[in-house]
Amino acid sequence: MLAVIANWIYVIITTYIIGFAVLEGIASISCMHVSKGQKRFVYSFKYNESYLVAGILVVNVYAELFSLISRVSLAANLVLILACALLYYEYREAMNERLINGIGRVISTGSAWLYLAIFLLMAYGTSHGLMHYDTDLYHAQAIRWIEEFGTIKGLGNLHLRLGYNSASFALSALYSGSFWGKQMHAMAGYFALLLAWLCADLKSIERRGHVILSDFVRVTAIYYLFTIFDEMVSPASDYFMATMVFYIVIQWLDLNSSRERAFLPYALLSICAVYVTTIKLSAAPLLLLSLHPIIRISKKEKKKGLTPIMLSVLFCLIIAAPYFVRNVIQTGWLIYPFTGIDLFNFSWKIPFATALSDANEITVYGRGFTDPSKISEPLRDWFPEWYTGLSKVNKGMLILDALSIPVYIGCAGYYIVRRIFRKKKKAFPGDETISKIFHLSRRRTVSLSDFLFIEGVTYICLVYFLLTSPLIRYGCVYLWLPTVIMMGRFVILFDNRFDENIKRYIYRIAVALFAVFMMFKFGVLIRDDYPRFKPSYLVAQQPYNSYVLKEKQINGNVFYYPEEGDRTGYELFPSTPNPDGFNMGGDKITDGFLPNFE
């Protein structure tokens, strides 16, 4: 636990400095200024956590770029520290002022103990737990490859799973501290920490005197954090992706609730969506969020809006470029194992048939099968069995998702018809009555148009998830969000119409139920954690799992493979489940790996 705390302090310092410099630098660009009447101002970021998230994004891209030229280890960290020192010197006055004000505000509101308790709790959870199956299968080895060599040609030929590139692996390698001889794997837990801190803003309900739509997503995110608490010790990309999706949606709804109209904050969250997609491709539909700031600024600024849009696109390309380059180097494919884009013909390219089979295996596995030949089964055949395998909570959420669709269509229909009548400058029949249903107090929730947009994006995410590889392990976030946002809006609708005395009792009941939920979940955590606890975990982090492996020499290089099964862990390197399934690109490992066509 102490090792995790030390690791996170280093992460917080470096990412805050980098994030502060980047966000303040972007905000200072003239085309990114906020327009208020005839005047333009530099946008002021409301939350210090924005700097941490921006910093983690930039540092992750840096780690990926560094991996293209060298191993991501001590040298990469020294360069990072030097960059932080220079940037802190440049921004020290503004940064210190921001930190002092932020810390002072947290202390004055009595929230310091809450944030500290969350920090210690999440550090404890990250210190030990259950290691994800795929971490022992390939996550650990993928991170080890980045630590030892950076990016290797045809690495996916050594083990197909090593071709599953994720930006999170480079970040984990950068902050693993492997050069100390003790490997940390605390970054999934750190992402969970950032989300937990964001969820702590539920305390603002008392100050506001009412709930807002993002509060319902926060409660859902807390439920998710409880489900991964004993697994976030594992550097699985699922947890990075899901926590970031929650973060983006919560922040987006916070902006909607405050009626934020500036281009920059929405653009930055859209850029974050690009980043999350480089962590896991299942987040790709979130890229639709970018339509919101693009349309808004195009209507407001006309041709002048093209400059900030193009600048934002440039930032997206910078984030995506190292991800795509690493894909090509490791597999020969732009996006592996997606065979729809076939641009290259390198000697180390994973064969088309192999990539297609791998893609089919991923899809059918998400549907609950292991036979790739079932890829052609229609929805009506595989869906019932997949649905049966869901937990009661997820079954209920999926049913509510379906029931919410007619409600969403009704809201959208009303909005469209009302817009048409307004353009014709005619009164919409029954508008005053119906508007009481669809429109809420400006201080309480998002506008109808903003609600329809974010709800529509979450439904598209859900459909994409169901039609690709519906593995609930990471797709639960897409399963939950449509219902939570829809229910949240209608809860606020009724809250807006209750008498203050009645609402006071309802809020007390809600707080009591939430307290019971939290106590129950903590009780379950204590029960499950007790058999796994070791006093040593209060100091050091639980290491990766170890396995009994055999050796095989190929061109003078030792490779390890398991006696049984397919997992190899982290310690013995390099390893592969099948030592006969690839060819060396030369005598050295740095020469890469070639497919075995035999």
Structure, explained:
The chain contains 21 helices and 6 strands. With 598 residues, the chain is mainly α. It is globular and about 80 Å long. The two termini are 48 Å apart. A hairpin with a 2-residue loop joins strand 3 and strand 4. Helix 1 packs across helix 4 and helix 2 packs across helix 7. Strands 1-2 form a two-stranded antiparallel ribbon. Strands 3-4 form a two-stranded antiparallel ribbon. The model has no long low-confidence stretch (mean pLDDT 91). Helix content is 62%, strand content 4%.
> Uncertain segments of ≥5 residues (pLDDT<50)?
none
The main sheet orders its strands as: 1-2
Largest sheet: 2 strands, antiparallel
Beta-strand share of residues: under 5%
Question: How many H/I helical runs?
Answer: 21
* Quaternary structure of the protein: single chain
User: Helical percent range?
Assistant: 55-70%
